Amino acid sequence: MITFYGVIGDPIEHSLSPAMHNAAFDALGMDCYYGAFHVKGRFLYEAVNGARCLGFGGLNVTVPHKEIIIRFVPADETSHDIGAANTIDFKTNKAYNTDASGAIASLRDNGVSVKGKRVLVLGAGGAARAVTYGLLKNGAAVTIANRTAPKAADLAAYMREYGDVFGTGMDNLKEKVAIADVIINTTTVGLNEGETLVTADMLNEKQVVFDLVYRPVETKLLREAKLAGAKTIDGITMLVRQGALSFEVWTGVKPPLDAMERSARDAV
Ligand code: ATR
Question: How far is CA 230 from CA 157, 180, 226, in A?
Fold first, then answer.
């Protein structure tokens, strides 16, 4: 009998997760199917309980439901600390967050250890929250720079118990970029072709630039980083790793990253 999985969000139609997870199930010959479900906030509780009652193996939870979900699905330590979850497992009936470890895995798989490094996180929204937590737990010193400076200060204050973190605005960004070993874009800037907060003249070849935006795959920021000779990591890398970690939570099996990555890159 098929075991069903899926992602719930609003909007959801452009999700790459079905392609990615079904590629992994196919590669492993597992009798499972992963779908995308458009769930409005007012139906979130019913949708999750419906999936549980229908015998689903698990769910991914995406924008805008990642914070609300932990009000009624018990959170594991990481998702509790972050205040958001992206994965529900119906075996344990728990919510997990694989965004933080997915970001760290993306860096690690590209030969980047963040321990003792200075990392500049651009943005202070939901994605920045998970990424900052992962970085701090792995020994990085983090500066969060956000257009709305008080949001960066609030996030830094919340995260301070996990490590060395400071929140600031986007002013003097050139100087902030110059002293960073790793720059991570968690803002939505770059979704529109040709937009970037950081340009080649601000970067150098010793730096690592990681963009969470994956549509387009090669953002203006990544093109600028390449021009400056910096190491680049794209958003598909992150998407695949957070997905692979969810897959492992549900099945206990490490999925083939190459099959997942190929299908995600084809689908985008
Ligand atoms: P996500 O959950 O993907 O992190 P979000 O919570 O809506 O999305 O956060 C979006 C982030 O992109 C915010 O940090 C936002 O900055 P503000 O807090 O100042 O709104 C940032 N952002 C969006 N558009 C931006 C722009 N044009 N310039 C700079 N930052 C921008």
Answer: 30, 12, 6
Q: Is 66 a catalytic residue?
A: yes
Q: Is 71 helix (H, G, I), strand (E, B) or coil?
A: helix
Tokens for 50?
């419906």
Q: Please tell me the distance between residue 197's alpha carbon and the centre of ligand 1 in angstroms.
A: 12
Bridge partner list, 73: none
Q: Which two tokens stand for residue 228?
A: 């400056």
Q: What are the E-state strand segments in 10-104?
A: 32-38, 58-61, 87-89, 94-96
Ligand 1 atom with minimal separation from the 212 CA: 3
Residues of the chain with pLDDT under 70: none
Q: How far is the C-alpha of 146 from the C-alpha of 150, rounded, in Å?
A: 8
Q: How far is the CA of 258 from the centre of ligand 1 (A)?
A: 31
Q: Are the beta carbons of 267 and 19 closer than 8 angstroms?
A: yes
In 3D space, the residue among 34, 35, 37 whose CA is nearest the CA of residue 10 turns out to be 37
Query: In the 8-state DSSP scheme, what is residue 10?
Result: S
- DSSP strands (E only) in 16-89: 32-38, 58-61, 87-89
Take residue 171 and report the two structure tokens written for it: 């002013």
Output the pLDDT for position 193. Answer: 92
Residues in the chain: 268
Mean pLDDT of all residues belonging to the chain: 98
Interatomic CA distance for residues 187 and 198, integer angstroms: 12
